[in-house]
Amino acid sequence: MIDIASQLAHIVGERFVSNNPEEAFFYARDPGLMPAHKPDYVVVPKTASEIQEILRLASRERIPVVPMGAGMSLTGLVIPLRGGIVIDMKRMNRILEVNEKARYVIVEGGTSHGALKAYLDKHCPRLRHSIPDSPATATVAANVMIHGQGRLTQQYGFNSDMVSGLEVVLPSGEICTIGSCALSPYWFSKGAPLPDLTGLFLGWFGATGIITKVALKLYPRKKMRDVEIFVTDRDDLVPDMVYELTHTEMVEDINIFAQPMPMIFKDNHHITLFITGDTDEELEFKRKMVWNCLDGFIKSKDGGFMSVPPVMKPTLLDMPQRSVSRFADVKKGGGFEYSGPIIPVETYPACTRKVMELGSKYDLAYSAMARVIGRNHAMMFGFAFTFNRADPQMMERTRKALEEGGEFALAAGGVFWKPTIDEQRLALEKMDATTRDLMKMIKENLDPLGIMNPGNWEVV
Ligand SMILES: Cc1cc2nc3c(=O)[nH]c(=O)nc-3n(C[C@H](O)[C@H](O)[C@H](O)COP(=O)(O)OP(=O)(O)OC[C@H]3O[C@@H](n4cnc5c(N)ncnc54)[C@H](O)[C@@H]3O)c2cc1C
Description:
By secondary structure, this protein is α+β, with helices and mostly antiparallel strands.
């Protein structure tokens, strides 16, 4: 019988492979609510060719493989449901190239958003990327893999829409480039004018290949950035307000939150607007456009701008914004999870009422938090709850509340985002049968042995 641990050590070096119980304990879980399952081995490769060799070994020996970034997606997507090898990508963290004029960056598959932001702050102060509000350790590759959203999503769509090229190791161990980089030294486009093959990988949770390089579009960074908050108690008018705001094309990012704590927030919806400019004039012009577009709602006494207290501003302008993580500590025990379906903006009122109903039904502290995607094209709606990890009953209540919230959003016309295994099953059941067959065909062709992140997007 072959000794897998020594084969892995031969590939990555002894220090970077482990089957110790302590390590297996940590890599068996993520910070969310999904049940743990231990891997047999953890490896931390440094190069794409090491990943190629790991996948060849896994194919030969039929061992499951789960790629992992920071493990912050919360919904169990990095939990090795059938054991096998967890590939921790963190050592592949180099920023390989910035093309300042064409505004893109190429990073390795384990580079974190925090590291990319720090690099751009220091070396390319006129450029920025769409940073999500996840902890700064979250990786760029995993974020686009799960179609994440960030600070520029209202303007440019999902973070995955901003990908301009990929390098992927296929389950067979072959390596390929996707996009303009497949035939040009420039990584300016993920597809057009060629067929867009990124869809074979993005959204698949590593079940069709491992991303070893990502090119991401960068955008102009303005010198100034400010925040305004429009407050309303009319949830039914929020979609119209967002429609007017997106019509101005003056706002960088629109987030909405509704939560009962602190008391001052109760029963209100806070539309948080981020505005940028290179000069005072530009900033003020944009601010005026934003104020004017909501004039009608102010006149009808359906809402108004609140003055943002100076102590609150730095928190709101922080990138990533840490207030979401702090929400986890509202209840003793520090647990936090959200189900974040992508919904039509018009269903915001129904979803907000649902999160409040679930909060009181399951006796949980809740927050409804939304981010506008594109020019009102959709919205990520977070049914967010906090819980005490030391209280199993409370965790079970949270699980139920999240499940009900996700199913409600699905019935209302939304689509799960970073779905749990159960949500993936529900989505596959509801999906057009021919689309499902197409997914099956893709999965079976790319991963005929079914070794890649098994359990995920498994079409039976
Ligand atoms: C407080 C908080 C706030 C958050 N706010 C946001 C937000 O504003 N926007 C947002 O988008 N998300 C947010 N998230 C969710 C999540 O943290 C991010 O989406 C994050 O980018 C996930 O990255 P990760 O490296 O942790 O992914 P992981 O959990 O490690 O991986 C996610 C998936 O990608 C796969 N994967 C990982 N690396 C690779 C690779 N190289 N190749 C192939 N597959 C791979 C994994 O197998 C898994 O299926 C938030 C989370 C928290 C806890």
